[in-house]
Design a protein that fits this description.
The protein is of the alpha/beta class. It has a domain of about 180 residues: Rossmann fold (3-Layer(aba) Sandwich). Helix content is about 35%, strand content about 25%. The protein has an eight-stranded mixed beta sheet, with helices on both faces. α4 links the parallel β3 and β4. The longest helix has 21 residues. It is globular. The relative contact order is 0.17. Bound molecules: S-adenosyl-L-homocysteine (SAH) and N,N-dimethyl-L-histidine. Its EC number is 2.1.1.44. One of its GO terms (molecular function) is L-histidine N(alpha)-methyltransferase activity. Pfam families: Methyltransf_33. It is an enzyme of class 2 (transferase).
């Protein structure tokens, strides 16, 4: 471990935030491609995390509400499968909203570790959790989970590990990336440990496109904030008003794509490098893959995991899966 310091109420805080040079490299490489693209993990500065929280409160983004409803219904099943004294590790923990339900359902959980790339948001959420769950050991790890995370070097309490990965964040990766990520999480499991993961389901284009282009414009602000972040952190001069938000369902690849569309021909610089875009050209900023139950099972199997149980809402919009090492 390179650094370890305790923030208020936390049993440990490990700061492995990637250096700014990685953000710069991703942006310069992505903007130089024929189809410009930037990985979605860069949405999440403090403002991006706050905007994501606002998205979850919109009427159109059914994802969070639906998953919270399923968690309410299955609390008893989860408590039984996890058993007493479980230790929950939550990659991409964000505001740690769903964890409240899980920790409340579990029988005397021994610990909780939140892991997220958005440092301030992570620490605030974990401190809040530590204050509310008296006696629970709460740790926070600021890291990029697409890179190796030295989980076994962290002071994690003993107990059955439950890796909790809700929100369909798995859908933000292309097939090869989602397989690698599941393999990484599998590597955190010992015999008897499990993964509880949420994945959004394929549904009508209309419902999906509205969820990713909400009528209040919050998702548009979330998407455009990436450009604000580039201007601020990477010395950019992008005219943000020259871009608009687009969300489109790609049925062939079973994913909602988010793009930033140039409204007219333009040039801009980022850290001294010049880029040109034609009117209508886009920067591809996110994929949200949607799954059938069969396809998710096949993905899990490809990563050496087996589905022991799964639960869906009545509309079949979203599914939570209990995975164990195959
Ligand atoms: N789990 C929450 C939040 C989902 S939003 C929920 O279900 O509502 C996705 C979260 O993953 C954000 O908090 C973001 O900061 C984090 N995240 C995205 N990519 C990441 C990465 N590569 N490494 C670590 N955290 C990441
Ligand atoms: C974090 N992730 C699963 C969200 C999603 O649905 O793909 C991010 C998001 N993008 C637009 N709205 C929400």
């Amino acid at each position: 471990m390179t650094s370890s310091k305790k923030a208020g109420g936390l049993s440990f805080f490990e700061d492995l935030h990637p250096p700014k040079s990685r953000f710069l490299e991703d942006v310069l490489t992505g903007l130089a491609k024929p189809q410009k693209s930037i990985p979605p993990k860069h949405f999440y500065d403090a403002r991006g995390s706050a905007l994501f929280d606002d998205i979850t409160g919109t009427d159109d983004y059914y994802v969070t509400r639906t998953e919270l409803g399923i968690l309410d219904t299955i609390a008893g099943d989860i408590a039984e499968m996890a058993g007493p004294g479980a230790v929950v590790i939550e990659p991409g923990s964000g505001s740690s909203v769903k964890i409240d339900k899980l920790l409340t359902a579990l029988d005397q959980p021994a610990g909780y570790i939140g892991l997220d790339i958005s440092r301030d948001h992570l620490v605030a959420a974990c401190e809040d959790l530590a204050a509310r769950f008296d006696g629970l050991s709460v740790g926070a790890v600021c890291a990029d989970f697409t890179q190796p995370v030295p989980i076994d070097d962290l002071p994690i309490p003993d107990g059955k590990r439950l890796v909790f990965f809700p929100g369909s964040t798995i859908g933000n990766f292309e097939p090869a990336g989602s397989k690698s990520l599941l393999e990484r999480f599998r590597g955190w499991l010992r015999a008897g440990d499990a993964i509880l993961i949420g994945a959004d389901r394929v549904k009508s284009a209309e419902v999906l496109e509205t969820a990713y282009d909400d009528t209040q414009g919050v998702t548009a602000a979330f998407n455009l904030n990436l450009l604000t972040r580039i201007n601020r952190e990477l010395n950019g001069d992008i005219d943000i008003d020259a871009f608009s938000h687009r969300a489109v369902w790609n049925s062939e690849l079973a994913r909602v794509e988010m793009h930033l569309v140039a409204e007219h021909d333009l040039t801009f610089t980022v850290s001294g490098k010049t880029f040109a875009m034609k009117m209508g050209e886009t920067i591809h900023t996110e994929n949200s893959h949607k799954f059938t139950i069969d396809r998710f099972g096949a993905l899990a199997a490809s990563a050496g995991l087996t589905v022991k149980a799964h639960w869906s809402d009545e509309r079949g919009y979203f599914t939570l899966y209990w995975l164990e090492r195959a």
